[in-house]
Amino acid sequence: MIRTILIALLFVAVAGTGYWGYTEHQEKNAILLQAENNYQRAFHDLNFHVDSLHDKIGETLAMNSRNQLSPALAQVWRLTSEAHNDVGQLPLALLPFNKTEEFLAKMGEFSYRTAVRDLDKNPLSDKEYKTLKDLYANAKEIQNELRRTESLAQKNNLRWMDVEMALATNKTQEDNTIIDGFKTVDKNVEGYSEVNFGPEVSNMMKMKNRDLSQLKGKKITKEEAKKIAIEFFDLKKNVKITVEKSGKDAKYDAYSLTLYNPDTKGTTYMDITQKGGYPLYVLYDRSVGKPKISLNDAMFQAEDFLKKHMESKMEMVSSDQYDNIAVFTYARLEDDVRIYPEVVTVKVALDNGDIMGYEGTDFLLAHQDRRIPEFKITEKEARTNLNPKFEVKEVSRALIRNDINEEVFCYEFLGVLGNETYQVFINAENGNEEEVKKLKEAEPSYNEI
């Protein structure tokens, strides 16, 4: 009797294990199938957008009027963005494809800059027309290679999951049609260096790939990084500090420090540039209790912190509160002009005023000696370009980067329209409306804190 019961239990256990294994296998297959379908869709979309891109560039070559050319170039910009997005959804992270992505970015930047300018006053130059012709020919080559790759993949029933596995394990098959196809595209694009996108696009790409090479000072050692951290936080000697050098894939050359304070049981993370020893960011990791100090008191804490650690004069341009932490953003102030590219963010705990975080990367990347020019139009003249229903509350002078990443001096108007608060930036040279920002409802104006 007992043996019969044991056999029955064993049978149930084996059956249950088998069913569990079967369902696990089914779920795994379903996930793999979904991933494969997503890759197939992204690859199909990439081919479609490159085909459309080639056709749309061809249409621009036959256009002459601004009414037709500007929307067409805007379409080229949109299609390059779509193609760039499609590439990002494919498992190509381990495959060198940066030349093609950079080429798409330059193509998009060129088309957008040309589309938004007044083509009646400043029509396409001969050089720009030649650029469009070169782009048309280049897009055709990319289109042909992607079509060939897609055709062979379908013919041989190739799977993108195999591509992902081959790239991840670094065991690329000798005959992987998809990988070979994308390598060919990237190699061909490398030969498109003769395309003249103009100095504006070249400068724009440099801005997007900014580094910290302009920083002043010598290259510091790990021990010097430790000393900077100790001075920065005014630490005691019992604090344990570990330092790691940024890896080869890191965006900036920096030291990553972890500081454990046995007195507070708190851990702080900090990145310091290798050149000059400038703090990039600081993060204090601890739970924050219920608020016991006001936003105004937190602001004083943030300003005391900046006065201690920054030589530049900073002015608060926004404030907010997330959970029990106050977040303040400051822009450098020069001759009463807010330099918006040079901003830092400071986070303050509302339970006791601790500095919970600091972000200074944007400031370090953009910081430079600047000459503040005379504004060509007056504040009164700038106001005439505002929406008549916009009620101005504050006016400042500012330097911003517009939508094509050009630095422009502006009048900054803070005001309300209906129940919403906005920042409106009017170009101080020509009166153009450069940018409009809607502020969050919870974000107070500068004088409310």
TrEMBL record:
Domain Sporulation protein YpeB PepSY1 and PepSY2: 180-373
Every Sporulation protein YpeB N-terminal domain range: 27-162
This protein's UniProt keywords: Coiled coil
InterPro entries reported in the protein's UniProt record: PepSY, YpeB_N, YpeB_PepSY1-2
Domain PepSY: 376-436
Keyword set includes Electron transport: no
Stretches assigned to coiled coil: 129-159
Gene Ontology biological process terms from the UniProt entry: spore germination
Keyword Coiled coil in record: yes
Source organism (scientific name): Fictibacillus arsenicus
Name used for this protein in its record: Germination protein YpeB
Pfam families named among the record's database cross-references: PepSY, YPEB_N, YPEB_PepSY1-2
